[in-house]
Amino acid sequence: MLKIENLHASIDDKSILKGINLEIKAGEVHAIMGPNGSGKSTLASVVAGKEEYEVTKGTILFNDEDIEDLAAEERAHKGIFLSFQYPVEIPGVSVTNFMKTAINETRKAKGLDEMPAKDMLKLIREKSELLEIDRKFLSRSLNEGFSGGEKKRNEIFQMAMLEPKLAILDETDSGLDIDALRIVANGVNKLKSKDNAVLVITHYQRLLDYIVPDFVHVLYDGRIVKSGGKELAHELEEKGYDWIKEEVNA
Amino acid sequence: MSNKYTEDDLREELKTKEYEYGFYTDIESDTFPVGLNEDIVKAISLKKGEPQWMTDWRLEAFKSWKEMIEPEWANVSYVKPDFQAISYYSAPNSKPKYDSLDEVDPELLATFAKLGISLDEQKKLSGVAMDVVVDSVSVATTFKRTLGEKGIIFCSISEAIKEHPELVKKYIGSVVPQKDNFYAALNSAVFSDGSFCYIPKGVRCPMELSTYFRINQAGTGQFERTLVIADEGSYVSYLEGCTAPSRDENQLHAAVVELIALDNAEIKYSTVQNWYPGNAEGKGGVYNFVTKRGICEKNAKISWTQVETGSAITWKYPSCILKGDNSVGEFYSIAVTNNYQQADTGTKMIHLGKNTKSTIISKGISAGKSQNSYRGLVKISPNADNARNFSQCDSLLMGNDCGAHTFPYIEAKNKTAKIEHEATTSKIGEDQIFYCNQRGINTEKAIALIVNGFSKDVLNKLPMEFAVEAKKLLEISLEGSVG
User: Which of A101, A106, A169 to mutate to test the interface with B (most CBs of B within 10 A)?
Assistant: First the structure.
């Protein structure tokens, strides 16, 4: 589904990604771990198409299509979803209105008519139940005054509504207490299927107890320096990242 | 035409009086020669068949205007109009400009389509000849009958001067006196036409006077005069302007609007202003210098709602004089400036009565190289015990070349006054745009969404069917303003 080859990317002439290779197939869950400043969030932004980042070398293929020239919204229409580490506030725009716009813009891009209001309401009901969201919450302004947990749960709610092929969860566990973490993880697990894939970006192993990865990769200084199964996450949790740094620098 | 005085009569009259007036009028084009003097003022009054008291009133205004100087305190810069280079009378749209819609600028039609304006209305708005029997005309007639049954008078101010002189005489200039300010004085001297509305005691006007308005008032002149009187215990919701773009060739517009809300009456006055803003380089565009003011008697309420997206220069402060005890004034405003537009707009709330209340919500959106200023005055007079005001002024900036300014003035002369003022300035961030993009929403749509969210508190105050159009208008006004 996603194939990244020798990806180099920079921002303001500062090189961040220095040759990433990663392949994610449908039905798989991958986790990317790594110390602060290793380029985890940059990778997520570059795949999602954030304009500030410049791809200087390499390719990103999504379902065998080179997506380098596609705008962020076009990538979204193709089924790439990013759950943000820091979701932004949009005052005066309700969660429902935002979702309605997002869904209908995506449908428009695919040449479909707008979703009938009845179907939209049904979908909202279904997905808000899945994520144990109080529907009153949906009429509040997007992320305005939301707690950390509410913001993250709202991100996963949006993911549920948009049903992406590839979901990138950027530090979704940060700011979550254990109950919220469980709800969010359950949501992700329920949405998982053999046709879609999940890329979890996290600092800690904790989230991976709930969303169990098939592969774990360690990102350090803009490169994937180690890959393995879920046991690698446990090893990192125990030993920290220093031994990886030493290995690389040796 | 209700009066028997025809253009032929006028032609004869002007022929014989040509020398007396010292100018020559080309009747064919029906436009007065440029320049302004007492004779022109008299001629306008004569042409409109006005009674002597009205002519005198105009002349008095002209006398004051001559002594006045153009105000310079607003935060706008422009080349001052040459008032002697303007023609002060032009017969309103007597001939259709086009025979069919095919001849109209396609860009204009595209905008109409985006706003969802019906074909008949498109024709009317762009000056295309229409058959006599079209929907809009019969609709207008039905409206007029319904209003008539309730005793509501709704007609042009020219007609009112002739048919209801006692009302006009009593109230015209009672809220905005002739010598109130430079532009109001000019308007008082030369106003071309406008609307008059009277709601009798205890009557609730059964419809928004909006649909009617749009159908009938397209292409009104550059010096409009509006007078709305809500008698005791009555209610009216009045809508002025149009979301459709107005490509007026007149650069200077100086309108006056007076609202009178007698005891226990309520007037809701909504405006959408979409005059030609000039091109992307800042060439051309309308100068809009408007004086709007209302007076509230006991327990009365006046609510101004405005959406300002057009004009090169906007100078406008819809105000309330809260004279009666317990009266309420409200001002809800969205002002959008793009490219090289400049807006200096806000309100004045003058608290005279006891327990008077005012609310001000102003949303300024600036893009391109535009400048957007809020200017407001809250004045609490010594007798206004327990007066309350709440003001909120929010500015939204797009890009790095535009400006937002807030000039709030507060004068409180009574210790029991409670005045609150809140102001925020925010910028549409790249992060907000990217967030929307990532959800499949393109940048243009994202901006529309953010702007609509920002303006929601004011959009909600507009009459229902109009709010939808106003939202689309905001989108269109900001098209191409980012990236």
Answer: A101
Q: Which residue has the tokens 């009112």?
A: B160
Is residue B111 within 8 Å of residue B57, measured between CB atoms?
no
Name, in order, each residue with C-beta under 8 angstroms of B49's C-beta and a sequence gap of 6 or more.
Answer: B3, B5, B162
- What is the full per-residue pLDDT of chain A (250 aa) written as tens digits? 999 999 999 999 999 999 999 999 999 999 999 988 899 999 999 999 999 999 999 999 999 999 999 999 999 999 999 999 999 999 999 999 999 999 999 999 999 999 999 999 999 999 999 888 888 889 999 999 998 888 999 999 999 999 999 999 999 988 888 888 898 899 899 999 999 999 999 988 889 999 999 999 999 999 999 999 999 999 888 888 888 888 888 7
Domain residue ranges of chain B, discontinuous segments joined by +? 7-85, 106-477
The tokens for B106 are 């396609």
Contact A174, A5 (CB under 8 A): no
Domains and CATH numbers, chain A: 2-249 (3.40.50.300)
Confirm or reject contact between A146 and chain B (CB < 8 A).
no
Classify strands B371-380 and B328-337 as parallel, antiparallel or unpaired.
unpaired
Distances (CA, A) of B474 to B372, B430, B469, B470, B482: 15, 20, 9, 6, 14
Nearest to B441 among A87, A101, A141 (CB): A101
Structure tokens at B319: 């105000």
Helix (H, G, I), strand (E, B) or coil at A170: strand
- The sign of the dihedral angle between the CA atoms of B32, B34, B39, B42 is positive
Q: Which residues 6+ apart lie within 8 Å of B293 measured at CB?
A: B175, B176, B257, B258, B259, B318, B319, B320, B321, B348
Partner-chain contact B453 A91, CB within 8 Å: yes
CB atoms within 10 A of CB B191: 25
Residue B33: alpha-carbon gap to chain centroid: 26
- Three-state SS for B238? strand
